[in-house]
């Protein structure tokens, strides 16, 4: 029976999740050459080709795909054993912009926990500005937020696209102020929307303000107002009314990861979360 090296199995799992030797090396705090050697050692030990690598693509072989779940279980069992000896558990505090993860947030957190059960995860959901303030104070280790005008740092994870959404029976006469809902006076979406309306010369009034994205979605669902929403959080039954109401287009916004995590295990866990986040966004379109 072949005995397995924990580091080599971790390299295989990380490459599989990142689909990149470069990102896997970064997540593990090492070099591409080092992880290539460890992967080769594991493949030789098992007598199987696990990863197929071309200049354009990194993917699992058929045997690699079959080995991935047992490999994750192996790493998780190892981490649980090591965690039993730890004096103090490791903590990872992450902030999420509410619409950035969408309805997949529970699945993302479950993926993170499965990757490292010994990690104590603290999740916070809030607006980008509040999350960035908490991150700058050191209250959060990492945040996934939309790009703010005054910041140029962070890793781009994707793009959030916006539109004006309302229920099909929502009506507005151009000689009246547009009734719209926003999450808070200082939220990025409200600022973006009011700038666009002002530039287009459209009078507006806030029929609903505050309570976060969930409250704005509720206001739209109730037919109280139109709202500037990311396409990922549109309530059931709502439609985009930009063309029908002749409302100005809303700019897309980049979704960024900011992190100060430095220890290899936490960085690897965070890269797993990022990989899962990107996978969900691709499937969601």
UniProtKB/TrEMBL annotation:
Q: Which Pfam families match?
A: HTH_1, LysR_substrate
Give UniProt keywords alphabetically: DNA-binding, Transcription, Transcription regulation
Domain (HTH lysR-type) spans 4-61
Question: Which InterPro entries does this one have?
Answer: LTTR (IPR050176), LysR_HTH_N (IPR000847), LysR_subst-bd (IPR005119), WH-like_DNA-bd_sf (IPR036388), WH_DNA-bd_sf (IPR036390)
Q: Which N-terminal stretch is annotated as signal sequence?
A: none
Instruction: Output the PROSITE patterns linked to this UniProt entry.
Output: HTH_LYSR
Similarity comment text for this entry: Belongs to the LysR transcriptional regulatory family.
Q: Please report the name of this protein according to its UniProt entry.
A: LysR family transcriptional regulator
Species of provenance: Plastoroseomonas hellenica
